[in-house]
Amino acid sequence: MMNFSVKQLLECEFSHQDFPLTTEQIESYIEKSMAVNLVWSMSGDGKWKSRKEIRDFVRRSSTFPMLLDDDHPIIDFEVTGHHGFI
């Protein structure tokens, strides 16, 4: 999953050469991608309770701001280079 995330980041960078990503945007993208990928890899096909427990653990363990809305779990989001979570 991280290979795909890195490929997406590179595609974004190459397709927007007039507006290159800043170091902060790249770091933010990688952090958020890792969080989404971690939740997916550990609980993607699991029951809701297990996914919620993993999601809550990742939120508590992260050092960057994450979505805190219980109605929209991390696993339902996609990370983009310029916009963060969508």
Automatic annotation (TrEMBL):
Q: Which InterPro entries match?
A: Dynein_AAA5_ext (IPR041466)
> What Pfam families does the record tag this protein with?
Dynein_AAA_lid
Give start and end of each Dynein heavy chain AAA 5 extension domain.
8-80
What highest taxon heads this organism's lineage? Eukaryota
State what protein this is by name: Dynein_AAA_lid domain-containing protein
Q: What is the lineage of its organism?
A: Eukaryota, Metazoa, Ecdysozoa, Nematoda, Chromadorea
